[in-house]
Each structure stands twice: as structure tokens, then as C-alpha cells.
Amino acid sequence: MAEHGYPLQAGASPPKAATLTQNCTSIGELARSIMMKRQSGTDMSQMMSVVDKLDDENPVKSIGKEIVILAYAMPLFNGEDYKQRTISEFANKIQVKCYQGSQ
User: Fold this and answer.
1) 55 burial via Cβ count (<10 Å: 0-12, 13-18, 19+)
2) pLDDT tier for residue 5 given thresholds of 50, 70 and 90
3) Residue 19 has what pLDDT?
4) Helices (H), ranges, 1-103
5) What angle do CA 57, 61, 50 make, to 5 degrees?
6) pLDDT confidence of residue 89
């Protein structure tokens, strides 16, 4: 697992075809949707099966698996405020690692 518990070390980023901001934004959106599913009570195996359906050559597949593992290692909250804060913070932390991995 990557530094500080977040993925996206060098070599794990999507191809350079898109800009860094586009890539990190997409990864942040992926992290946000995974954490939203986590906070809504979706089973981890269900999320992993969605990621497993991606083409093996799709760089999002390995990143997606790491993000699912990280999201499900975090607690499930009851209050809507806690859920929303957790979703936003998780997506932002994943994006930080994306930008740091590109340096």
C-alpha cells in the first residue's frame, strides 16, 4: 500500500493523454463515488466486482481496487454530516496523492 495509506504512487497514475488535473479530478470522482457507496452500506465485495469487470489494461482497475480497500478500511458513519464530510475528505486525500505522485 502507498505512503500514508493512500494509493497512486508513481507508475500507478493513468496515462499522460489527459492533463494531470483531468486525471486527478477523475480519480477524485472515483474515490468520491466509492466512498459514497461505502457510506451508504454497499458491500465491499460488490464494489470489488464492479472494479474487476474493468479491462486488465485499464489503469483505473488497479487504482480502483486500492481505493475500494482504503474506503472500506474507514468506518461507516450514521449521521449525514459525518458521511458527507468523510466522502469529501476521502476524495480530497486521494487527489492530493495523485498530484504528489506526479512530481
Assistant:
1) exposed
2) very low
3) 87
4) 20-39, 44-52, 59-72, 80-101
5) 120
6) 98
The residue count of the chain comes to 103
**Helix, strand, or coil here: 37?**
helix
The closest of 52, 49, 57, 71 to 14, measured between CA atoms, is: 57
> 68-98 burial by CB neighbour count: b if 16+ within 10 A, else e?
bbbbbeeeeeeeeeebeebbeebbebbbebb
pLDDT tens-digit readout, 18-34: 788 888 999 999 999 99
- Tell me the torsion sign for CA atoms 2, 69, 58, 92: negative
- Three-class secondary structure of residue 103 per DSSP: coil
- Does the pTM exceed 0.70? yes
CA distances from 76 to 80, 87, 91, 102 (A): 11, 11, 16, 31
